[in-house]
Amino acid sequence: IDLAHWFFGPLTDFEVVSKAVLYPYRKIDGKLCQATAEDYVFVKATGVDGIKIVFQADLLSASFCQYVEILAENGNLMGSIQKDIPSFLFLKESRNPYNIGKTILETSQSNFLDMQMNAFINSVRQKEINDRNSIGDSLAVSQYLDQIRRKANE
Q1: What DSSP assignment string belongs to 60-124?
Q2: Each residue of 110-140: pLDDT tens digit?
Q3: Which is the most buried residue in 45, 65, 66, 92, by most CB within 10 A?
């Protein structure tokens, strides 16, 4: 949701398309517990200029899986910070510096928590406001989540 907000926000028109408890019992800390929340949700939203956005979140996947896919007139982007999910750009027409077709995007493995904490510390030391992931951005994401919860409970 934060990426969608940064790329295409502000977001509006949230619609919970599907939500479900697919596993009524889950193992938490080695104990079998009855589920008290959905383990699958599929949500639609609208971004600036009417851009259509879909989100899928689940607690079903055996491993952590996070990626973004952006579809556009000239192609699509598949992006992930995970080593086992390749990032690539596929273009119908060349756009400098990328050629037509599929271009694998190499990503380096980084410790994003360390990077985030260092950016925060440097902002405090230099008395500068970071232009990414501002308090306003965090507030917007929190408000989006509240809207999704309300829609899910309607």
Answers
A1: --SS----EEEEETTEEEEE-SSTTS-EEEEESS-BTTBPSEEEEE------HHHHHHHHHHHHH
A2: 777 787 788 878 888 888 776 667 788 889 9
A3: 45
